[in-house]
Amino acid sequence: MTKLEGVLPAVRSMKDFESVLRSHHENIIFLECRLSQISSLVKYTKQQNKKVFMHVDLIQGLKVDEYGLEYLINDLKVDGIISTRGNVITTAKKHNVIGIQRLFALDSHAINHNLKICKRIKPDYIEVLPGIIPNILKEIHEETGIPVIAGGLIRTKEDVSHALNGGATAITTSNKDLWS
């Protein structure tokens, strides 16, 4: 299994995509894109020997069901799936693709509810948003034993350091200034 660590660039635009293709990063997270773009994005990314992780909830035009996921996994050969939905992560894992459960740490109730889901489906990683609360990152990792990725509201190098020192194995950011 691919080990996700350090800064993971999260691409929102074609301009960012071109930039990250030329970078040293091995793993690319695709956030907002259209169904018509995915095939080309994956093709060019794979040609650069980089791994593709798709946030499937944010793909415009894709129905995130068994068939939509089979298209991404079997036809396009994505390396990982990110979703807020447990059934999507279960399907990804069933197809031997990295499953990243995204959860929002809004309040104690939301965290407890999401921890129950994570313990049941056992994703490969948990992405916690916002990723700027180190003690929550550590708590989620200790409670589940699953590696945690910090994402959302990470704006400075200090935010990156705090998240990584607080228990996150990696951080996702669309801020190009933090990719280096």
Description:
Keywords: Glycerol metabolism, RNA-binding, Transcription, Transcription regulation. Helices cover 41% and strands 25% of the residues. The protein has a single domain, classed as TIM Barrel (Alpha-Beta Barrel), CATH 3.20.20.70. The radius of gyration is 15 Å and the shape is globular. The chain is an alpha/beta fold and 180 residues long. The chain contains 7 helices and 10 strands. The strands form 2 sheets. The protein has an 8-stranded parallel beta barrel with strand order 1-2-4-6-7-8-9-10, surrounded by 6 helices. It has a two-stranded parallel sheet with strand order 3-5. 36% of the residues are buried.
Features:
180 residues; alpha/beta; TIM Barrel; two-stranded parallel sheet; 7 helices; transcription regulation; RNA-binding; GlpP; glycerol metabolism
CATH homologous superfamily classification: Aldolase class I
Largest sheet: 8 strands, parallel, barrel
The overall strand count is 10
One letter per element, helices H and strands E, the order comes to: EHEEHEEHEHEHEHEHE
End-to-end C-alpha gap: 24 Å
Strand order of the largest sheet: 1-2-4-6-7-8-9-10
Unreliable stretches = none
Architecture, according to CATH?
A: Alpha-Beta Barrel
| Global outline | globular
> How much β-strand is present in the residues?
25-35%
Helix content: 40-55%
The assigned structural class equals: alpha/beta
Helix segment tally: 7
Number of domains: 1
> What is the CATH class name?
Alpha Beta
